[in-house]
Amino acid sequence: MLTLTRLIASDLDAGLDGPGARPAARRLRRMLGAQAVGLADLSGVVAWSGVPPPADAVAELTAKALHTVKPAGDAYLSAVPLTVEEEPVGVLLVSRATTPKGTRVAAWLVEYVLEHVRLQASAERAAQSEMRALRAEMSPHFVYNALTVIAALVRSDPDRSREMILDFADYARYSLAQHGAFTTVADEFQAVETYLALQRAVMGDRLRVQVRVVPDVLAVPLPYLVLQPLVENAIRHGVEPRGRGGAVHVHGEIDDGDCLISVEDDGVGMDPARAQSILAGTNSGSVGLSNVDRRLRTAYGPWYGLVVECERDAGTRVLVRVPLSQPGVTPS
User: Fold this and answer.
1) Domains of the chain by range and CATH?
2) Residue 97 has pLDDT above 70, yes or no
């Protein structure tokens, strides 16, 4: 039954009006030993497996089941309404099933799958909203300063200005363009280095940077836009508030069978209680930190996510731990 549920879930990932409705009906017909099984969406369109009953009988019983939200039928055909969160979503049609109990089980299975599809769609919409919020957090102050420096160099150092324009284009492309759910550590580190090159041009000697990553982790899949928000947070909330500037270190290595990435600054730091509230989403200090933490836990489980080590006036260290590989996770 678990195997059948997984297969039908794959068939119905686009809903009852998707291309997988007919294969799902075929699997249900085999399970029930029925003459025919159909899956109807709310428009009344039926995906059949087997020899369907007369169209008039099908239309009448389908409409009755949807209208009353109760099973309807005759000696040859059963129509069971399918509901998700008490809302009708379609009808399961079974012609000459072996047992009424089997039909009820089949209807429950389809409802379970459709509920999973709806929840997955809601989760994807939430993830897209979070990503939009993360992109919106790209600092206008940084963008303005970077463009101002580029403009100032156009005449005095055109070659340097041209390099910075290309860096800024790469930064904007990676930060704002549409991406899949996962990228690689190599791509994330490249985006970080581009961002840091622009920040060094803006801050000059007030920003010292060290980026180091072992080659063994470069191909590790990583949720898109994980590292750059952490580095941006280290500069905006750690180094910049110090008038004399500071240092940011970004390292990637293998640790205890996982990929471990650290982003550390020697800036103003923060109270551990404040860091905890930021990760919990109850503090608006950094949308980036809570967003990254939530996406890591969604992708890899509650035992992953961010670890923040901090103390006021003693800097901040953020640790990202992800598995070297994860079934079903591939960079896009």
Assistant:
1) 2-127 (3.30.450.40), 137-323 (3.30.565.10)
2) no
pLDDT per residue as tens digits for the range 174-188:
776 655 678 899 998
What is the DSSP secondary-structure string of 179-228?
Answer: --SEEEHHHHHHHHHHHHHHHHHHHGGGEEEEEEE-GGGTT-EEESSSHH
Selection from 319, 119, 300, 290 nearest residue 223 by Cα: 300
Contacts of 202-206 with CB under 8 Å at 24 or more apart are 202/142, 202/145, 202/146, 202/149, 203/235, 203/239, 203/240, 203/245, 205/245, 206/239, 206/244, 206/245, 206/246
Q: What is the DSSP string of 275-302?
A: HHHHHTT--TT-HHHHHHHHHHHHHH-T
Q: Model's pTM, two decimal places? A: 0.58
**Using CA atoms, how far apart are residues 114 and 157, in angstroms rounded to an integer?**
61
Cα-Cα-Cα-Cα dihedral sign, residues 294, 299, 302, 308:
negative
CA 292 to chain centre: 10
